[in-house]
Write a structure and sequence with these properties.
Blueprint lengths: L2 H12 L3 E3 L4 E5 L5 H10 L4 E10 L4 E10 L4 E10 L4 E3 L8 H12 L2 E3 L24 H9 L7
Parallel strand pairs: 2-5, 6-7
Antiparallel strand pairs: 1-2, 3-4, 4-5
Length: about 160
Amino acid sequence: MTRNALVERIEAETGIESRPRYSNQIEASVPRERIISFLSFLKTIGFEHLSNITAIDWIQDSTMEVVYNVWSYSERIHITVKSPVPRGNPVSFTCMGLWPQGRVYEQELHEMFGISFQGNPTQGPLFLHNWKDIPPLRKDFDTEEYSRRAYGYLEEEQ
């Protein structure tokens, strides 16, 4: 199936608007309430591999986006699925039932961005044991200030 035929099928069967990006890539934006049903649909039509999950902090819009990258090896097409969550209450739903490796990706996003995933029991520290600050990949995290508090000033700064 061609990329454009997949775009048409996705829209016809889910009502979610998707768009071609590159010769082998599709992009879709999905409300968080529909993210699991949409990802499940993708899996049933051959998008069998969850490559990763990442996030984007749109601080100026008070929003974060959870971004899923999923591959169909049979069609040789990649889809990027973006799902917004409110920055003040960043909660989405786990995809562990579809792809077990989602557990670790979600744990990392919880630790680095503060996004929680309902249904994922593993949301404790992955890398940052004893971390007591805001998640470090949020745009309002001040790396320089944190370093000064944690390690002190350099001699030339005093």
